[in-house]
Batch of 2 targets.
Target 1
Amino acid sequence: MSSERSVFTELGTGWFGAGLSPHALTRLGDCCASARSYAAGDEIMREGDDRHPFGIVIAGRVALRLLVPERGAITILTVEPGDVVGWSALVAPYRATSTAVAVEPTDLLEFDAEALRRALREDPALAATVYPRILEAVARRLGATRHQLLDLYTQQAERVPW
Amino acid sequence: MVTAAPQRPAFLPRGELDRLLDLLHEDGRTVIGPIARDGAIVYDEIRSAAELPAGWTDEQAPGRYRLNRTDSPRLFNYTVGPQGWKRYTQPPRVPLATATRDGATVSFEPAVSEPQRLAFLGVRACEIAALLVQDRVLAAGPFADDDFRARRANAMVIAVQCTRAGSTCFCTSMGTGPEVTDGYDLVLTELDDGFVVGAGSQAGERLLSQLAPAAASKAQQQAVTDGVAAARATMADQGVAAEGLPARLMDRLDHPRWAEVADRCLACANCTMVCPTCFCTSVGNVSDLDGATNQTERRWDSCFNGDFARVAGGNFRPRRQDRYRQWLTHKFATWHDQFGTSGCVGCGRCIAWCPVGIDVREELAAIAPPYEEPAAPPPAIRPPSLDALVPLPMVSYSPSVAQEPAFRADTSVATVRAVAGETADTFMLWLQPDDEGLLAARPGQFVMVDQPGFSPVPISVSRVADGALWLTVRAAGAATQAFTTLQPGAQVGLRGPLGRGWPIDRALGRDVVIVAGGIGLAPLRPALDAVLAQRDRFGDVLLAYGARTPADRLYLPELDAWAHAGVEVAQIVDRAGPEWLGQVGVVTQLLDRRDWKGRQAVAFVCGPERMMQATVSTLRTAGITRRRIFVSMERHMDCGVGICGHCQIGPFFVCRDGPVFTVAELGDLFGREGM
């Protein structure tokens, strides 16, 4: 990652950044945005952490995990390039809902949570561009989670004909 | 039945009816006719006219049937009893095959149908219509039932005109009566002193010339006309608005009345048992105690039975309202799509024999009333005679697919080469069939696998190679568990290939999107094999594969091999431990934000229905139209008989018309609860 500018160029190619106005990009750049690289296995945030950043995956893959006693860490979702990690930084009570781990070398565009929240409070135009994207990301996860909850690939009928 | 030119009607005094019976007996026929027994008119063997129900008449209403004594000398002064003639044309139990096991060797002998020569005496106009409907269902199509054909060909039809109608009768509105006009050998109209007789076939003519009766007088002929008119008049205000009913009914699939009628319905299946056209059956097994000999037989079944729609994918009509809706919409609407005629002939049996008195006429009027009262009675549409029947064209997108999935009991033997575990609950059954015809299975087709003592199991073919079939099976129930114990060299029965598979030819020159969920990859593997065999004839090929966990993925080595052979292989699992570095989530995430707009891509999708719905929605957003998205409803398949009725979705029999459909073909039926 040579400069923040090129990171923002990358951001524009993913679904989250596509169509953001120059104004929004500038304002986002002001929110302590930084490009950060994680090695495979690095923890990006931990479940319950209330000071975690908001990030956009530029490259690599991030696993969202929940620790289940006696079953260990279960990956419930992976986040692919273009998608967001740490949306909980923008929604009270700002605590991470899962542990995020880079499962391969991963580049993230990270924003300081407090600075970003302040910018969104102060700039309704920015908020009007960013929040629908956050909502879309969260809605997709909700949809996916519902399908996973159905556990469709198991044989669920109590009695099968054969 | 060859229809003869109309002849002048004759008159047979009642006392001479036995001469007719004698002629039939001399012709080697057993005569089945009405007798009063157990408080009802039933059809059974009669040896002389003295056994006919002289003086009996019936009184019918919703949930009510009574026989009453009268002073009338008439023998046919009732309307219809509980039994239709289907008891003799499609009996409650028909043997299909005998399977025997001798050590590891098994053999399958089809049952031979040798029906008796019969004469049906006292067949009413609505019942003739029912026989003609049965002809369409069981004899006219490419899925003909040989047993039915033989029974039908061996039965002579001696009709009786209705000169009175009961309160449950509504043949006039279904266009099937009350006048007998076709489909009979002889027709009798009973008067107080005898019968006006006419012939409707050459066989009937011969009988009539042997009887040599006197010509009927003008007055007697007028009495026939008056009698039929009287029956018709009784029914003037007790029918259903049949014209346009199929469309109206299918438009009301979400009417609250379905739930309301289901509260009254006991799901006892009486209506389907007394219905002269209901044809659904199940294939069952009767085994001796050591399992050495096993009889497969076909038995009457009913869509009202709780387990009727229980298939591999679960019970898709669990609620009573689903089952009532299935029955009524099939009978009055989708039957037209399947067989070109209504399934109802207006005999009213389902009304009288419903223990809680549900009246289909009332339900139809409440659920799908006509938009306006017709000014004149709907024109009578008669089903064509047997001679005029032609097979109906079935929905087909790929005429090249040869299929003949009629149950011909032609199970052949296959030898087990190996049984090998694929995942914790699936295994590969590697079978070498004796009949090389099975190796012609096309991608997406299925076979019925038969072990003596177990119900035959429908299984999609997951590869054809080296003169053998590869089947991927999930050990879910008794029969599939039993497969896992088979040793190399053991034998099983195989029937098929069956059904309509993936139209690989439709994908030539296009991008191909293959989306598999869980074991749904099995029927898609032959499609991948076919694409890879001529890889350069297709555009981009994507396999998006979703599984429960990494360990539940099928064909692991092949996933890599396909990736090297020019297929983009994307995988995702529902959940995983930290050792899994691939994607976690749902299969649609592999398709999100992709774009096939304007590229005429073709998609093949197989998996649990809910997963297919989500996938179809994502694919459509990505620019693939409903006509180019093919889904396999393989989990709906049941007996593979082609006509048992279990797997029906709206107008489709999944095992015959599918299991592969375009999303456009299924339309609203795809994903609708309780269809």
Note: The radius of gyration of chain A is 17 Å.
Target 2
Amino acid sequence: MRRMILYGMTALGALWLTRNLYVILLALPDEVAQGAIYRIFFFHLPAWFTCFAAFFAAGVASLLYLIRKSPGYDAFALAAVEVGVAFTAIGLVTGMVWARIIWGIWWTWDPRLTWAFITLLVYLGYLMLRRAIDEAAARAKNSAVLCIFAFTSVVITYKAIDWWRTQHPGAVLSFRTGGGTIDPAMESMLFQNWFALLLVAAALVLIRMRQEQIEREVDALRRRAHAL
Amino acid sequence: MATLAAENLWKYYGDLPALREVSFSVSGGVCLALLGRNGAGKTTLLKLLAGLAQPAKGRVTILGRSPRDAAARARLGVLGHGIAVYDELSAIENLTLFGRLYGLAAPRRAALEWLERTGLGHVRDSLVREFSRGMRQRLALARALLHNPDVLLLDEPFTALDDRAIAVLQLLLRDALAAGRTIVMSTHQLREALELATHVALLVRGRLAHFGERSAEMLADPGWLYRRYGEA
Amino acid sequence: MRFLRQSLTVAAKDLRSELRSKEALNASLAFALVILLLFSFAFDPTAETTREISGGLLWLVFAFAGTLILNRSFARELANDCLEALVASPIPASALFLGKALANLVLLVAVELVSLPVFGVFYNVRWTPHFLPLLGVLVLATWGVAVIGTMFSALTVNLRLRELMLPVLVYPMIIPALMAAMQLTTVLLAGEPVAGDNWLWVRLLVAFDLIFTALALALVETVLLG
């Protein structure tokens, strides 16, 4: 049953994404100011939303793990962080490509890019911590605490960076394209692509979570075999 | 009310059970020798009893409370593998520190008293890093007994002690038992432990294979219990 | 209040231990001075632009030198299994944490107060006007760093790669506090008082401190229990 749902979600997400790609690349007209490259925006912005949603879900799962101590929450938190990191990377790369085309430079200390980089480091730290602890219960417990700190940190950092960049103008440019005069077809596609990406993200999280649970079982069986 | 009770304790490391369905209870004046091979779960059980770790299932009660309760911990004395005193502090500083942590009314006076009882009065202002091994162990004992705990949890206390330290330990433990305290100690030093013990428990792969009073056979032949359960 | 007294007992113990050996303190100070020296090669100390980044430079020095002290925090308890005895004692884990964080605050601020005159000399920066507000910023921001650093010291205490993991975990998390500190310090070192927009950064520091202190006090017991 679970597998059916998983296949269904993945298929739906993949199909939807494909259809979106077609629309994005072929059906929508060029944007007035930016030309063709603005299309990357349809992946860039939803990537942010998705990664943030993933990190939020990981934080909640970590809290639930600390309360209930059920290993499923830990597996979910790990999966959500990994998927979140992947989408943060997508956001970073799409942002860099966009910056290269529009401004001629690969990087800019734009608030969102800066925040993304910090967030990437924070959650890479989480993944590093997990790797450094061998015992499953201690790993789950400590990384859960770190995950809660991490999410609090990325929220605070977002606000702080926003203020910093507004106080230090220079390469301060944001992705609020046009601000208000967005073409309705584009706006609709933005949300559609976001939902498609969310579906794909959710499917990835579930798959990864199952993989983590199986890995733990195998590990335990292996150790039991050694003990015999 | 039992002084110390374990009810259906389970503890996992990862997915492997380190303790399974361990239940027993002891009251005042009982000295329980906890036997078992390495890896049987003795240290794990002691950690659970001391409130240093939490069981996956079941619970521990000390004087009717959870060992995480501050009131219970104030009545608990713990001696683990490490001596748990600071090398860079002096003997009196170490004991006064723990006296304060245990909320004693006169920490320094208690510290001085226990330094005398463990034969360390003459080195009270020396740093622990200068002590011999036997002296360090006696100081560790003083630290564990400083607040006159009702329950003593000792993890292999006789291991690698010199003769003087063994004598001091046996004397102090006998005094504690006479005063109605409860002692649980894990040990490989069967002879010394069994002399003091009133009860004996054997852990085999996380399960409590045996729990009962010390018998004459055990005293006469310390390895008897191990052989009986195929653990020799 | 008993909680406070217990925390202060732990803090006093940590400080006494550290002052006996001065290992971490000396290493941290030496490191701070070395970094100040290195920065003088990286940035021209006389240029006007350097003045603008003075706060940034100073806090980079503090952040790097600080990890040497933060690392010792729970690591010092491992030597004779002292951590076990502390956790088994009646004091709440949060009091243990608070005591250690307070000790770290004192040690970190000590390093900062020694580095400040040296910085003033090397970079020809006057730090004496507005010293009290500067001290306030030092304490507020350093408390945030101490809380995160002490907490993560507890998290990583049993790891092999503790010395590497701690900076990797701590630095990204303290960025908001560092940003606020850098901005405020630059303003104060330029001889101006904190005014207008800059109060935003003070509020950020206070919020940062409150939020993470509460989080740490709530979660440290989970981390320290097996």
Note: Residues 2-224 of chain C form one domain.
